[in-house]
Write a structure and sequence with these properties.
The strands form four sheets. Strands 1, 2, 3, 4, 5, 6 and 17 form a seven-stranded mixed sheet that branches. This protein has a five-stranded parallel sheet with strand order 8-15-9-10-11, covered by helices on one side. The chain has a three-stranded antiparallel sheet with strand order 12-13-14, with no helix packed on it. The relative contact order is 0.19. About 25% of the residues lie in helices and about 25% in strands. It has six helices and 17 strands. It folds into two domains: about 180 residues, 3-Layer(bba) Sandwich (FAD/NAD(P)-binding domain); about 100 residues, FAD/NAD(P)-binding domain (3-Layer(bba) Sandwich). Helix 1 packs parallel to helix 2, helix 1 packs parallel to helix 6 and helix 4 runs parallel beside helix 5. By secondary structure, the protein is an alpha/beta fold.
């Protein structure tokens, strides 16, 4: 029996683990990976103490810090469900069940799918969702980035240093994202932006060899030859395993109060999976801290 089971190993989950361990709680972290969305970031410029650090390096330092404590960190363990018992919780993964007196849900978000023909078929064969992870595979190739926000622009800038020609396929009339990032996109010689462009299909044989788009203004369709497609159209909360137990809003975000408490005593939530407004690395870390302290307080009151 663990004092607390933390679901997720991004900034919120890893911070919660550090604070729980410092309180001498028997702590288990379950996650399908380490780093969450942070590892997708090419460059982090707004985390206190670092003027610029890559997402991969920041995650490495997070994990290094956590492993200084007596924390059981189990990766490749995606949680599939939570059951509430009398005074503890059963946390299920695909193959095992773990018992915890408290639970901290810090599962973050997962990429939103395009849901067009070819997306699932060519996943891992030209279709990707993480430029930081997979951009090096597209050296010298033509690549399409689907999306028009900061995530898409960041991916396009990364790929521009590796690929041959990068197309930003934006369904809206203008690019979103930060002005500084938009300016970098405009200044790049090998990035082309197609606004008002709806992606209809990803084509290929064994691997991706093109996409089909429709101009929303004129209505005409065209095919573009590319060898890679990065889908960067946002993300959705990774909360399916907890729905029906904890309360969520219309977007699937877990509702929490200022103490990171959910509607179920003993279950806490932190980071991007919750309904907090600031979806930032530093905010998620702060939420993880609050969730761990609240879990500790809950255990003390129970005793």
């Amino acid at each position: 029996m663990h004092d607390t089971i933390i679901i997720g190993a991004g900034p919120a989950g890893l911070t919660a683990a550090v604070y729980a361990a410092r309180k001498k709680l028997k702590t288990l972290v379950l996650s399908k990976d380490v780093g969450g969305q942070t590892i997708w970031s090419f460059g982090v410029e707004n985390y206190l103490g670092f003027r610029l650090i890559s997402g991969v390096e920041l995650v490495r330092r997070f994990e290094e810090h956590v492993r200084e404590f007596e924390v059981e960190l189990k990766t490749d363990n995606e949680v599939t469900g939570i059951e509430q018992k009398d005074d503890y919780f059963d946390v299920h993964t695909k193959d095992e069940k773990y018992l915890g007196k408290t639970v901290v849900i810090a599962s973050g978000k997962i990429p939103r799918k395009l849901n067009v023909p070819g997306e699932e078929k060519f996943l891992g064969r030209g279709v990707a969702y993480c430029a930081t992870c997979d951009a090096p595979l597209f050296l010298g190739k033509d690549v399409a980035v689907i999306g028009g926000g900061n995530a898409a622009l960041d991916a396009a800038l990364q790929l521009s240093q590796i690929g041959k020609q990068i197309y930003v396929i934006n369904i809206n009339a203008e690019l979103g994202g930060d002005e500084i990032t938009r300016d970098k996109i405009k200044a790049a010689d090998n990035i082309g932006v197609l606004n008002n462009a709806q992606t209809l299909e990803i084509s290929g044989e064994v691997f991706v060899n093109g996409i089909k788009i429709r101009d929303k203004t004129r209505g005409d369709e065209r095919a573009i030859d590319v060898q890679g497609v990065f889908v960067e159209i946002g993300s959705v909360p990774s909360s399916d395993f907890a729905r029906g137990l904890v309360e969520v809003n219309d977007s699937g975000e877990i509702k929490v109060n200022c103490r990171s408490e959910t509607n179920i005593p003993g279950i806490f939530a932190a980071g991007d999976v919750t309904d907090v407004s600031a979806k930032q690395i530093i905010a998620a870390a702060g939420d993880g801290c609050k969730a761990a302290i609240s879990a500790y307080d809950h255990l003390i009151r129970k005793k």
